[in-house]
Amino acid sequence: MFQETPIYARLVTERGDVPARVRGEAERIHRDLARVITQGPPPAADTPHRR
């Protein structure tokens, strides 16, 4: 979409491809959260541990 506009190309040259970096970071966070959520909550602090 924006890749064909001169201003976008100039901004990418000056600042890097910020949308791509943000997308990558969002995907990483999504993977991390999915892993945490599938593990379930940690045991409650006031619950005695079984031995």
What does this entry look like structurally?
The chain contains 2 helices and no strands. The chain is mainly alpha-helical and 51 residues long. The longest helix is centred in the middle third of the chain and has 22 residues.
Feature tags:
51 residues; 2 helices; mainly alpha; 0% strand; rod-shaped
- The structural class is mainly alpha
Form type: rod-shaped
Runs in which pLDDT lies below 50 for 5 or more consecutive residues are: none
Strand content: under 5%
Q: Summarize the main sheet.
A: none
Mean pLDDT score, rounded? Answer: 83
Distance between the termini: 59 Å
Number of helices: 2
Report helical residue fraction: 55-70%
Encode the helix/strand succession as letters: HH
How many E-type strands?
A: 0
Radius of gyration: 21 Å
Topology, element by element:
Blueprint: H1 6-15, H2 18-39
Offer a concise description of the structure.
By secondary structure, this protein is mainly α.
